[in-house]
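Annual report, structural modelling task.

Input specification for the NAP complex:
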Amino acid sequence: MKVLVTGVNGQLGYDVMNELNKRGYEAIGSDITESNDHFSHYVQLDITDQEAVESVLMSVKPDVVVHCAAWTAVDLAEDDDKVEKVKAVNTKGTENIALVCKKLDCKMIYISTDYVFNGQGDQPWDPDCKDYAPLNVYGQTKLDGELAVAHNLDKYFIVRIAWVFGINGKNFIKTMLNVGKKYPQVKVVCDQIGTPTYTYDLARLLVDMAESDQYGYYHATNEGGYISWYDFTVEIFKQAGYTTEVLPVTTEEYGLSKAARPFNSRLDKSKLVKNGFKPLPTWQDALSRYLKEIEY
Ligand SMILES: NC(=O)c1ccc[n+]([C@@H]2O[C@H](COP(=O)([O-])OP(=O)(O)OC[C@H]3O[C@@H](n4cnc5c(N)ncnc54)[C@H](OP(=O)(O)O)[C@@H]3O)[C@@H](O)[C@H]2O)c1
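The model returned the following structure:
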């Protein structure tokens, strides 16, 4: 199996490449930078450049594209002068890839987010729910990317994830460890609920999907229950051996961020098991393995 992965300089793409290499598949990585120190099979690709996408994909002729590249700076995406760029990357870039996958008749795995929903209520979101109502620019552009995939292809997986952490990039855990080292106490929101996703564990699932033909919409995070960012921070400090005090605050008390955030990021993952996929380990176990991999 030959697989082209986008966004390999980021958290998820990096781990997907490692998982493919580990399993002996032919993996070609791509990202916007000219070169990459980690992977020998690497090609520079700006996904907003339709001609470049066509030319790279047509020459690689992958069996599967795992599309991890995205604009992920959620607050910055709200700036008036950034909106067009965010659309170009998350929506047009995804459509560019989908159109060539159609020509090649290859599989496409698109990584999306719970931000396509409005984040209200307390029920877990079903992967086939169509009540889309993104709260911010990032969510809208990722949703439009999903629609471009679903409208153009039959052989696709749309996999929504949340609260992502991986070795290769910035994330909540790294931020909290830095802050927790400097200050005796930190305030963390306790009314946004979800489950973290360790990219190392997700990469295993995505390669299992690449091997299968159980197409459709999926939700995938680690197991271990739904928690708040406050709960997550308490466990991060506990496992890291920090004595930093964690104070729970509401989103309102914490103060507004530029982009509205969903309160309910609970994702129903039961379809994974129904369709024969192995679920991810618990987030507590993932955190413990992650802390052994990073320096803090
Ligand atoms: N992070 C989260 O909490 C989260 C939550 C839910 C869903 N997701 C989704 O999960 C996927 C992976 O996320 P991640 O955290 O691994 O993202 P990430 O670390 O930000 O990596 C994304 C990569 O895409 C690259 N990229 C940006 N614009 C590009 C372009 N025009 N052409 C080619 N590459 C480009 C980025 O390069 P630059 O850094 O140079 O821009 C970066 O290397 C994304 O689809 C994201 O939307 C993430």
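The mean pLDDT is 97.
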